[in-house]
Each structure stands twice: as C-alpha cells, then as structure tokens.
What does this fold into?
Amino acid sequence: MKVYQKTHVGKVRKNNEDSLLVAEPNIFVAADGMGGAAAGEIASGMLIDTVKNFLSTIPEPLDENILSKAILKANAEILREAKKNPQLRGMGTTATILHLNKDQAYYAHLGDSRLYRLRNSALKQMTIDHSYVELLVALGELTPEQARIHPMKNLLTQAVGVTEEIEIDAGNFKVESGDIFLLCTDGLTNMIDDSQIEKILMNAQKDPAEDLINAALEEGGHDNITAIVIGC
Ligand code: CA
It folds into this structure.
C-alpha cells in the first residue's frame, strides 16, 4: 500500500488549521479546524490526538462503530476544553476517518472534509458534506456547481466539538485491487473540482498528494489544503 500525505497553509492564511493523521493499522484522518486565534488548530489537533490515542487502546479488528466512538470522544474532549477556556469557545473541527483492513474499508465522518474513491478511472465521493449548501443541493435548490461557489459554502450543519449531540455518518465497503482513496479538506475541493481531482489521481507520476496541493495553490490557495492519497 502506498500512502502520500501533505498539508499546506495555502496562499492567504497565516496559520494552518488543518491536521492529518497516518497511523497503524492503516488509519487515516483529515481534520479541518475552525475558531478564532489559534482555536482552529487546537481543535483539529485535539481531534487527531484523541482519535489516535483512543484507537490505540482498542484491539483489532476496528470497524466503523469504533471509528464513530473515537469522534464522539473527541467531541466531548473539545467541548470540555472550550468550556474551561473562554477564548477557545466556539472552536470545532471536521473529522473524516478511513481504516483499511484487507479487502474492507471503514469510515466515519462529520463536517465537510471528504473521502473519495477512484475505481476504474471514476472518482466517487464516499462522504456527504454536513454543510448548508449540501442541504440545498439535496433539496434541489442548488446544483453542485452552484454550491461550490456559494457565499455560504463554509457554513457547516455539524462539526466536532461544537454541540453535545452529533450525528456521525459511518459505513463500510469492499476494497478492490487498484482502488485509490483520497481524504482531503475543503481547501482542496473549493479550489479544484472532482474532474480535476480525478485527472490528477490518474496521471500522477510521483506524489499525487503534492500534485493535488500544487493544483489547488495554482487556483488561488485561498484556504489551508490537506490531502492523503492511499493506493491499494
Ligand atoms: Ca478549510
């Protein structure tokens, strides 16, 4: 299995509020923090630390329910930290977790970071954004193309560490030989669209994560950009 990972501050922001994790046994996480001052970095960093520590205490095999529990634990930890620390109030983070075990993939997800799968030269988004514009797309009031450039595209309907109650999306599916997975934050998907991502993943020579980030930077790099690419 080949894994490429990269996170970049982008061309506009001063801090990188994204965090990522690549850990044994084949655990991959992308997290995009939000909040004033350094709060976003703290939230996404806490998410990664909590998920990593929690999963290291669980005997294999892991499944999507265990991944969801890891997000629930991070939710409680981030809420607790924000209560203790008034300047951190309102911080939160997205969480997209993928775990691969032989021919099975398991995922758990909250927010608008994404998991994609490239299979037989076709890219498919495996997660649904918890965002206001996604809701409007589901209602048929916006097309996906309109959603990408909508002024409220950053408004999340759910995030980790903001409310006590969260509804995590989780699931599993079979992995086929040749599948390529991508975990990424919206700093990538707001700059380049799915057809560009598909092309880059299919044509990458050396490091697809770097190619994706370079493409997002060329399109403006308005946000922090994170990409983890896993080839099976
Ligand atoms: Ca972002």
